[in-house]
Amino acid sequence: MKLFPKRREGNTEAKPNAISKGMEAGYKRLQGGWASWMMKRTEKFSRRTWLVLLALFVMFTSSYSVYLAVNAFTGKKGNSITITPIKKPKHATETGETKTDAAEVSEAEYSRIKNFRVYMDSLARSPSGKALYDSINNHRPGLMDSLRFIENYYQQLKQK
């Protein structure tokens, strides 16, 4: 298989729709109108007038080009592009959540959490309670992880 296969010769042009045909016809009509208007205005010009106009055009355009080139090297530096550093917004790294102080877990709450954890562990170990344990975990998937997190958090608070 070639990377760039040859194109088939034939009608490769897309067929123009009605809108593009209308736009093309309008453009050609405008172009023809402009050309005829210019022909009417300049049909009485002599060869000498054309040469003078050509010389003026060449003189003005070349002098403007020279001016631009000279001004690029000797002109004021005030027009040059300045580079300014991007300033990071103050709150770019904040999530928008309210800051809460360290939550305190009371001894009673911790004992309830610990008792529930023991209860869940006993359900997981017994064959009859395994179905209830699985049902609780299916309905509350992150419950055991949350219990572990709270217990670890309480232990860290106790150590401080």
User: Average pLDDT, to the nearest integer?
Assistant: 84
Number of distinct helices: 5
Strand content: under 5%
Backbone structural class: mainly alpha
Distance linking N and C termini: 70 Å
Poorly predicted regions are none
Q: Note the overall shape.
A: elongated
Fraction of residues in helix: 55-70%
Radius of gyration: 42 Å
- β-strand number: 0
Largest sheet: none
What sequence of helices (H) and strands (E) makes up the elements? HHHHH
Write up what this structure looks like.
The chain has 160 residues and is mainly alpha-helical. It has helices at 18-42, 47-74, 107-125, 130-139, 143-159. The mean pLDDT is 84.
Question: Outline of this structure?
Answer:
The chain is mostly helical and 160 residues long. It has helices at residues 18-42, 47-74, 107-125, 130-139, 143-159. The mean pLDDT is 84.
